[in-house]
Design goal:
Strand order of the largest sheet: 1-2-3
Mean pLDDT: 89
Order of helices and strands: HEEEHHEEEHH
Low-confidence stretches: 1-5, 128-136
Number of helices: 5
Number of domains: 1
């Protein structure tokens, strides 16, 4: 387990850019990412978004203009952002933020494919049609 902790990238700087709606994060390994709030919101690691198991993910829509209104530190390993749509249950570990930043292009493509498969638009409001919501 110690090896896993040592492999986890450590952030050196974290800045929220409200106007452009991106989280800028710089890691000790030299990686620096600008992660859109929308990407963070649609890939929130919370059970509300990810479900409680494979196949239970809830497709998020209408999050293009979402903002982060607050960020709470969680120990020395994560942050808990509070989004303007009220979502506040996702713990974003340093490792997960590094993953989001490093894989943005593939994650956006996967999100667009899921939208197309569901026959919904990225800007469609969230409705009960998404299914799988667990009421968190």
């Amino acid at each position: 387990m110690a090896a896993t902790l040592q492999e986890t990238p450590t952030p050196e700087a974290l800045t929220l850019h409200a106007r452009s709606r991106v989280l800028e994060i710089a890691f000790a390994d030299g990686a620096r990412f600008r992660i859109p709030f929308e990407l963070m919101r649609v890939y929130s690691p919370s059970a509300e978004v990810q479900g409680h198991g494979p196949g239970q993910e809830v497709l998020q829509t209408g999050k293009r203009e979402v903002e982060i209104v607050d960020v709470e530190p969680v120990g020395n390993y994560a942050i808990k952002p509070v989004f303007s749509d009220g979502h506040d249950s996702g713990l974003f570990t340093w490792s997960y933020l590094h993953h989001l930043g490093a894989n943005q292009d593939a994650l956006w493509r996967a999100y667009e494919e899921r939208l197309a498969a569901a026959g919904v638009d990225r800007d469609a409001p969230m409705t009960e049609r998404a299914g799988g919501a667990c009421g968190h």
